[in-house]
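Tip: read the tokens left to right.
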């Protein structure tokens, strides 16, 4: 069915305006006897459930006579809107583009005969030079601002009439008159029917209202049930298929936000914490596929500089579908034009030069293709032998190596008529010339050094090493290594060529060897068949064990898991610095990982190697004290980790001591066994005189706490049973906030330094104060009790003072809503042992740190209703030594981030914001559910694709 118009708009910005515009176009000049005269497409109302969104949208574009662009800066930047506009410009006349400006600016330059692009912000630049004359456009900026979307409003009616006129093929004034006439007819009929309907209305209204209410209740229940089912399936998939887990969690939250959907999002974030992008999903065709050797091949390659990823799979992406070898720009985070190449059945060589510009691909029949990646151009084909005449078992390169500079290729292969004889050749990539050729044994392994200076050749059957120098074209023997067991074992070289990893067999463990010395460096149980060694052979090892891709230290001890797949991993590749790792599985899935967190959790620099025991999570200050003074740091708001404040020439003891810093770090105040002093950490000079508070004794039951207030002049602390506000300029007590003997106070300060809580750590009573414009505290809550009151060991207040959380000696957490005074949570922590708590910036999520044996991590709660959201394990790259006691400290970061510092000195940043979890999951997997999954969970519901802009 032909449509009159297609509305293209930004879902994030103009969903409501687009809906109103569609409704207005359908209603204007509509005869009262007809439902509608014209048909205008808008995706969320007109699109049927379909797993291929673009194909559906493309079909609607092809059926539409006019393209209605709802202009805004967000729409101009939207990838979907740009695709829709590009199709129209390629297949339709620009004269049939109608523009409605919802936000931003549009200016036409009559002299230039084009838009004034220096002032136009609401249009994409692809429209530059498209129109021969000023196109039809209407201004809806004020309408959108006022949100008066009725045809009774003159401004909105005029704009709708202007857009509807070409769709009806009539003038604007004529159309407007027709609409008024139709309204008069309808009004007369309406008045005649009102009398009759009024008699029925009273009877039907009650029944209809009741039915409508029940309908809404049933729909709400259906959405909740669907969300819970999607969330449950997401949790089931988290370990086996993190990509699908993220997809189902996103749809659960989009269907209906529930505690279950929040828990599924948290679990999906944890399962995908190292994923930069899921590039291909696993395909069901894997179960029925029979290729070379009976298994489908998936191959990946990453350039040494980490700029480019290339990948293909036998299960999808062949040139016959127009996809070929996929190329992904890692730095820009976007797909490049695919290379229409044909690889060998069952996989084979796939390598990139260090700069990602040249691709080596093993194609069919022992041929090697060389591609220019940026231009997608085949440079040359190198024929190793007439492979089409070989039996299947000989029909492939048996070993290969591609130099980092993209100049040399080495490979071993068979030739027809000499099936028992194998040859080793080296080619000049730029000319295609064969520069070395010789008979070779059948058990060779090849590797170029990272600097491309040498080709290392290892005869594994005899333990013999040799090198070939591209510059001199000379071969040189490197001796024999008879003690290295290599029979039937997968072998991986380091870029330096001096180190090799031998995968495990039924009899042997996986082993790391130094080929220069013949010494075994490390061994590990479990298969490490697919692996990448660091370029210099001394850093972390990336390897696959079954369906998991993990990072190992040089002793082959597992540090952390990067990700999992639904099928065993077939191929692994990594950049030279180990930051970017790609892997492909047997069902065609391909994922890109970032070892520094990819945005879910990010490693922050900790050059001073500060550890958990040196960081005061309450005051946000880290200090390292020695006999001659104390070094001081504060948590940085950016990506630099800790910010050094300076040094003071005074040792600071651990007991009965507290340190606080001003917001800019220019002054620190220290209280040490009753003596208060202030310092300039940048110069080490003391500011003013120190003062001993002899009349007060610090509370010995809890650690001493000290906080600066918003004016960076006053500090607050608990002293004996009092809460004191002290002027650091004179050391005079400005306020005493509690009466003597009322509290045994444990203090907690909000992130904005304006809300102060004093919790009686014995009885659980809570007093709250708020810093006023008068420069003093005013009490906002008195004597509210916590349900958990058995020796409260820690309490925290959210950034804006909305909620308070505490943990007691028995590991019970209580959560108090300060505005209502209601305790919304009393729960026992799943992993006791630590007292650290922190809120997200929006006070929606609460995190608790735990350590248990060698494990450490975070427990999460929904701070609005107290629902438990699960755990995040914190696998660190620097585990504590046997002599160190595991510890973990938390601190609020910028936005809704939480910072974790462990006993090994690893500083990580993670987000606690549920909206941020959703946004980040959309960045790594934005494709919709398959039709089968959509029909199973959402067949009777209308649910937008969660990642559509």
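Filled-in amino acids:
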């Amino acid at each position: 069915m032909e449509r009159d118009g297609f509305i293209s708009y930004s879902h994030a910005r103009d969903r409501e305006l687009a809906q109103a515009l569609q409704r207005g176009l359908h209603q204007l000049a509509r005869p009262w006897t007809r439902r509608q005269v014209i048909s205008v497409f808008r995706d969320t109302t007109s699109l049927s459930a379909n797993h291929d969104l673009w194909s559906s949208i493309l079909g609607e574009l092809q059926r539409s006579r006019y393209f209605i662009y709802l202009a805004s800066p967000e729409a101009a930047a939207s990838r979907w809107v740009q695709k829709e506009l590009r199709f129209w410009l390629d297949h339709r006349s620009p004269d049939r583009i109608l523009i409605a400006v919802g936000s931003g600016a549009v200016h036409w330059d009559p002299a230039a005969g084009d838009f004034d692009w220096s002032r136009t912000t609401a249009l994409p630049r692809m429209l530059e030079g498209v129109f021969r004359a000023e196109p039809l456009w209407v201004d809806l900026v004020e309408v959108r601002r006022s949100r008066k979307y009725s045809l009774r409003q003159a401004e909105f009616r005029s704009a709708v009439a202007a857009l509807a006129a070409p769709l009806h093929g009539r003038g604007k004034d004529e159309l407007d008159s027709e609409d008024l006439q139709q309204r008069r007819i309808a009004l007369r009929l309406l008045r005649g029917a009102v009398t009759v309907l009024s008699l029925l209305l009273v009877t039907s209204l009650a029944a209809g209202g009741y039915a409508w209410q029940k309908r809404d209740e049933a729909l709400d229940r259906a959405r909740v049930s669907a969300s819970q089912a999607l969330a449950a399936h997401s949790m089931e998939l988290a370990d086996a298929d993190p990509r699908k887990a993220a997809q189902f969690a996103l749809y659960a939250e989009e269907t209906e936000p529930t505690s279950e959907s929040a828990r599924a999002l948290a679990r999906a974030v944890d399962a995908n914490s190292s994923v930069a992008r899921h590039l291909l999903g696993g395909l069901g065709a894997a179960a029925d596929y029979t290729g070379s050797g009976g298994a489908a091949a998936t191959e990946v390659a990453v350039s040494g500089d980490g700029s480019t990823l290339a990948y293909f799979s036998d299960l999808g992406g062949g040139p016959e579908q127009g996809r070929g070898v996929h190329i992904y720009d890692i730095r820009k985070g976007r797909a490049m034009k695919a290379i229409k190449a044909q690889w060998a059945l069952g996989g084979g060589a796939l390598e990139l030069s260090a700069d990602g510009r040249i691709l080596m691909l093993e194609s069919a029949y022992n041929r090697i293709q060389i591609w220019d990646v940026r231009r997608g151009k085949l440079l040359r084909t190198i024929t190793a032998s007439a492979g089409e005449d070989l039996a299947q078992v000989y029909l492939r390169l048996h070993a290969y190596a591609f130099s980092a500079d993209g100049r040399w290729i080495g490979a071993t292969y068979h030739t027809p008529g000499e099936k028992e004889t194998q040859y080793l050749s080296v080619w000049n990539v730029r000319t295609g010339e064969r520069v070395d050729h010789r008979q070779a044994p059948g058990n060779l392994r090849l590797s170029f050094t990272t600097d491309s200076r040498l080709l290392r050749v290892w005869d594994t059957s005899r333990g013999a090493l040799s090198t070939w120098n591209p510059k001199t074209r000379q071969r040189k023997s490197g001796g024999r290594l008879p003690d290295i067991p290599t029979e039937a074992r997968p072998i991986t070289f380091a870029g330096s060529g001096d180190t090799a990893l031998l995968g495990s067999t039924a009899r042997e463990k996986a082993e790391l060897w130094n080929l220069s010395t013949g010494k075994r460096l490390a061994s590990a149980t479990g298969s490490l068949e697919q692996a990448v060694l660091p370029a210099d052979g001394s850093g972390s090892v990336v390897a696959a064990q079954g369906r998991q891709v993990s990072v190992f230290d040089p002793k082959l001890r597992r540090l952390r898991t990067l990700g999992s797949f639904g099928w065993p991993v077939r191929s692994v590749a990594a950049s030279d610095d180990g930051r970017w790792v790609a892997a492909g599985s047997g069902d065609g899935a391909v994922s890109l990982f970032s070892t520094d967190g990819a945005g879910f959790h990010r490693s922050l620099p900790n050059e001073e190697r500060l550890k958990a025991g040196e960081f005061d999570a309450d005051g946000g200050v880290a200090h390292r004290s020695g006999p001659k003074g104390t070094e001081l740091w504060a948590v940085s708001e950016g990506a630099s980790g800790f910010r050094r404040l300076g040094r003071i020439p005074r040792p600071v003891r651990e007991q009965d001591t507290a340190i606080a810093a001003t917001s800019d770090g220019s002054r620190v105040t220290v209280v040490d066994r009753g003596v208060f002093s202030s310092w300039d950490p940048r110069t080490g000079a003391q500011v003013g005189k120190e003062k001993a508070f002899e009349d007060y004794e610090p509370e010995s039951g809890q650690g001493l706490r000290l906080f600066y207030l918003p004016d960076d002049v006053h500090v607050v602390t608990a002293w004996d049973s009092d809460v004191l506000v002290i002027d650091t300029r004179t050391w005079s007590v400005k306020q005493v906030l509690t009466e003597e003997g009322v509290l045994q106070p444990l203090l907690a300060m909000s992130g904005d330094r304006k809300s102060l809580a004093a919790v009686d750590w014995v009885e659980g009573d809570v007093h709250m104060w708020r810093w006023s414009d008068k420069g003093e505290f005013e009490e906002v809550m008195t004597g509210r009790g916590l349900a958990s009151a058995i020796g409260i060991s820690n309490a925290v207040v959210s950034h804006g003072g909305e909620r308070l959380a505490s943990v007691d000696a028995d590991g019970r957490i209580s959560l108090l809503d300060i505005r209502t005074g209601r305790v919304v949570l009393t729960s026992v922590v799943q992993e006791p042992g630590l007292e650290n708590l922190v809120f997200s910036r929006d006070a929606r999520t609460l995190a608790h740190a735990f350590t248990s044996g060698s494990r450490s991590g975070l427990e999460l709660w929904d701070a609005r209703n107290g629902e438990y959201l699960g755990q995040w394990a914190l696998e660190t790259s620097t585990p504590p030594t046997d002599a160190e006691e595991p510890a973990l400290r938390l601190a609020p970061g910028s936005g809704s981030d939480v910072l974790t510092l462990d006993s090994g000195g690893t500083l990580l940043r993670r987000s606690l914001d549920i909206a941020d979890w959703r946004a980040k999951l959309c960045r790594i997997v934005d494709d919709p559910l398959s039709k089968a999954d959509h029909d199973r969970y959402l067949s009777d519901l209308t649910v937008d694709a969660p990642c559509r802009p």
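The chain has three domains: 3-170, 275-599, 610-904. Residues 926 and 947 are 5 Å apart (CA to CA).
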